[in-house]
């Protein structure tokens, strides 16, 4: 079975566990220029290396545990969620994040822009959503050992309550 994404054809698979490389975290955090003492919740564990990368970038208050987000999202005190969530569950994740009502930045496919469920989930608060568009296609690392040469879809940083200068921001 094939699906279309960003004008590229890709084989549909059950693989939904990718690692976010350090350069992506660095690109995002340099752009956001957050206080280094901010408490970051990175709820989607993957292989756990995100916490190491965030700490190497100077953010030492990072919550990143190998546990089910849907059962533990209200367990911690934090200022912001920054994550690369599993794309197959992003709709349910967004429902919870909207309910939590804290600032967040998620790495998601660009196709999120035209998803009707965004307006349904965020309602009148849809105007509080913003986008950061990277200056190049982000590459991710699959955890099943398969080394892809190039990610076959474009991604962006989907933001909520970040109070960026513009709603659409280009890096």
Describe the structure using short key phrases.
single chain; about 170 residues; alpha/beta; two-stranded antiparallel ribbon
Task: Kindly summarize this structure in a few lines.
This protein is of the alpha/beta class. It contains five helices and eleven strands.
Protein model, in words:
The protein has 171 residues and is α/β, with parallel strands linked by helices. The chain contains five helices and eleven strands. It has a seven-stranded mixed sheet with strand order 5-4-6-7-10-8-11, covered by helices on one side. It has a two-stranded antiparallel ribbon with strand order 1-2. A hairpin with a 2-residue loop joins strand 1 and strand 2 (8-11). The termini are far apart. The model is unreliable at 1-14 (pLDDT under 50).
User: What percentage of amino acids are in beta strands?
Assistant: 15-25%
Mean pLDDT: 87
What general outline do the C-alpha atoms trace? globular
Tally of DSSP helical segments: 5
Major sheet: arrangement of strands: 5-4-6-7-10-8-11
- Return the string of H and E elements: EEEHEHEHEHEHEEEE
Kindly state the number of beta strands: 11
Termini separation (Å)? 34 Å
Low-confidence stretches: 1-14
Share in helix:
10-25%
Major sheet summary line = 7 strands, mixed
Rg for CA atoms: 15 Å
Counting helices, strands and paired strands, the structural category is alpha/beta
Topology:
Elements: E1 2-5, E2 8-11, E3 18-19, H1 22-32, E4 40-41, H2 49-56, E5 62-63, H3 69-72, E6 80-83, H4 90-100, E7 104-109, H5 116-122, E8 129-133, E9 141-142, E10 155-160, E11 168-170
Parallel strand pairs: 4-5, 4-6, 6-7, 8-11
Antiparallel strand pairs: 1-2, 3-9, 7-10, 8-10
Helix pairs in contact: 4-5
């Amino acid at each position: 079975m094939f699906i279309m994404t960003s004008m590229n054809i890709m084989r549909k698979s059950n693989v939904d566990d990718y690692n976010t490389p350090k350069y992506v975290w660095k690109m995002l955090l340099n752009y956001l220029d957050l206080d280094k003492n901010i408490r970051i919740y990175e709820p989607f564990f993957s292989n756990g290396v995100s916490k190491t990368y965030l700490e190497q970038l100077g953010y030492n208050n990072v919550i990143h545990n190998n546990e089910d987000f849907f059962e533990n999202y209200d367990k911690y005190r934090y200022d912001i969620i920054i994550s690369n969530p599993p794309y197959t569950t992003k709709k349910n994740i967004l429902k919870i994040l909207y309910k939590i009502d804290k600032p967040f930045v998620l790495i998601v496919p660009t196709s999120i822009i035209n998803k009707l469920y965004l307006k349904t989930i965020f309602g009148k608060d849809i105007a509080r959503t913003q986008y950061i568009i990277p200056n190049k296609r982000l590459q991710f690392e699959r955890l099943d050992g398969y080394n892809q040469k190039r990610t076959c879809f474009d991604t962006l940083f989907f933001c909520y309550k970040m109070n960026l200068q513009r709603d659409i921001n280009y890096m």
